[in-house]
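Each record in this resource describes a single protein on a pair of labelled lines. An example record follows, reproduced without changes.
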Amino acid sequence: MHQPAITGSGVFTPEQVITNDELVVAFNAYADRFNAENAEAIAAGEVEAKAHSSSEFIVNASGIEQRYVMDKAGVLDPAVMHPKLRQRADDEPGIMAEMALDACTKALAQAGRTAEEVDLVICAASNHERAYPAIAIEIQQLLGAGGFAFDMNVACSSATFGLQAAADMIRSGSVRCAIVVNPEICSGHLEWRDRDCHFIFGDVCTATVLERAEDAKGPHFLVQSTRCATQFSNNIRNNNGFLRRSRPAGTVDRRDMQFMQNGRKVFKEVLPLVVSHINDHLADSGTGADELKRLWLHQANKTMNDFIGRKVLGRVPEADEQPNILQDYANTSSAGSIIAFSKYSDDMEPGDKGVICSFGAGYSVGSVLVERA
């Protein structure tokens, strides 16, 4: 059995930024257009008028102040309200693979590894741009990596589930060096026309290099243990798959084909699930909460993270114990906890322990207990 370790991480951040103020101007213009076009139906009580959004509402509801996106113009056009992502020709790299190449290159540089030394690529993300061939195999080819590659999807927990899969294969000896990459184009599945959720997501890509600790070339984190759990729920759902779906005559679009969430039920059901998951993981590994230097949590909502931090640590966490990147990146699905880890782990000293944890649709929860070597 081999000891797996995280030896590098990298983040690809899109160049385009949408602030809350910019988003609100676009959404309110869309709402005004909708209300004007449906004035008679609204007056008759047949259609509900769309209320305006505000930056204050967004910050209070989520803690988000801005988000990075792959296409700003389409999202902010009141007549479009979605990113316009160019259709790639079959002989061109896909958009997810392009994002992944940047993040993987940064992670490999930090690990001191070349792509040729990688023998496993896992593309773990919430939404994939096609059914097949696997995005991971395209990334493998662009990198020049060896071995094998595959895609996986456990929604917002995809990254931590991918880390467990890679760590297990390293531990067993079936692979020596792996990359888990998380290209998340969340703007493509968000319903930007829904006031309750139009501010939630952003785009990003993260990558993590794992290898045998004995092979590590520099500072690294030992993966001491991992734990994953799932429990089916419809409270976070997206029905927009690659299967053809029939639409009733006269139907223009279906709201359920984009991100949908029953926020109150998610808060009520997911929070205790995550707290129990982390506490049980720590207990089974013989680690006390007072031994944790840091919690790198899924970046979905500041209130949720604050609650989890208090319950796990038994007190209000200090700012550096539970770093948030949500205000800058918004919810980036599975990549959120990895962004936090990548940006807030360099100050860890040998022996310091932390937990990378993500949670979301499924429901799914994944946690990775690491120790600075």
